[in-house]
Amino acid sequence: MSSVKIECVASEGFRIGESPVWDEKEGALLCVDITGRKVCRWSPAAKQVQTVPVDAPVSSVALRKSGDYVITLGTRFATLKWKEQLVTTITHVDKDKPNNRFNDGKVDPAGRYFAGTMAEEIRPAVLERRQGSLYTLCSDLSVVKHFDQVDISNGLDWSLDHKTFFYIDSLSYSVDAFDYDLQTGKIGNRRSIYRLEKEESIPDGMCIDTEGKLWVACYDGGRVIRLDPETGKRLQTVKLPVDKTTSCCFGGKDYSEMYVTSASDGMDKEWLSRQPQAGGLFKITGLGVKGVPPYPFAG
Ligand SMILES: O=C(O)[C@H](O)[C@@H](O)[C@H](O)[C@H](O)CO
Ligand SMILES: [Zn+2]
């Protein structure tokens, strides 16, 4: 058994840290602070976080083939030029829903950017239900809507053979799978592969490892869990020193480290004083598994 080590590498006090992505070219960990309205880049070499402030809640960031990044900002897909700190809108969704914003997003193995929306929260996990939809931004910059009636569109990833799409609508307390057609980007045949137990609380961000197992960050559960999508069994639980663990990704050398983001929104003074690292970025080593490099957006 390897020995698992957890370290808070950046105690940024993020309001809602989310969407960790390893940027191999920069040797840095990208993430966003949704309600803090900034995109962040943590460099382990410099032990330093750079941030780009934006003008709306920014809920995900992804690499782009042509360099730089794409983000989901408010209800927009946009590009982000890091050095210039320049954000350019690509397209809007949910135009008829002014109270909506994007939430989690990730690029598929063919370079399509998947991201879903939700109503703005009144407080954590309290919001107008079924206002969200799941979208894809294709490389030709057209948008496809897959379905609506989503509560909190959250974690997403693809199986190693690219034939299954995994997805979380948080308030269903379920991790779902769809058949995936990589050629067309179409999804179908939705089913649940895992239902969270009470103490695991709310499923949030998710990533896959090189053994095809899923890692799910549990919001208010203070943990990441490893699931076998074939058997529907939980294989491992790793607890963190903060309750509001929001998302996870692999990064670092050979993608052997796991990075976990966290949130502090919705915590009162007493709670924050018990968990001073709330909103920090955590690095987990010694898991004995590796991750899959993130796919860049092809447009
Ligand atoms: O991190 C996210 O994906 C949402 O934007 C958060 O707000 C939490 O998930 C939510 O509060 C949990 O219910
Ligand atoms: Zn999330």
Automatic annotation (TrEMBL):
GO terms for cellular component: cytoplasm. GO terms for molecular function: calcium ion binding; enzyme regulator activity; gluconolactonase activity. InterPro entries: 6-blade_b-propeller_TolB-like, Regucalcin, SGL, SMP-30. It is found in: Cytoplasm. It comes from the Eukaryota. A divalent metal cation binds at residues 18, 154, 204. Signal peptide: none annotated. Its EC number is 3.1.1.17. Residues 16-264 form the SMP-30/Gluconolactonase/LRE-like region domain. The active site is at 204 (proton donor/acceptor). Substrate binds at residues 101, 103, 121. Keywords: Calcium, Cytoplasm, Hydrolase, Metal-binding, Zinc. It catalyses: D-glucono-1,5-lactone + H2O = D-gluconate + H(+). Its main location: cytoplasm. One of its GO terms (biological process) is L-ascorbic acid biosynthetic process. Belongs to the SMP-30/CGR1 family. This is Regucalcin. Its cofactor is Zn(2+); Ca(2+); Mn(2+); Mg(2+).
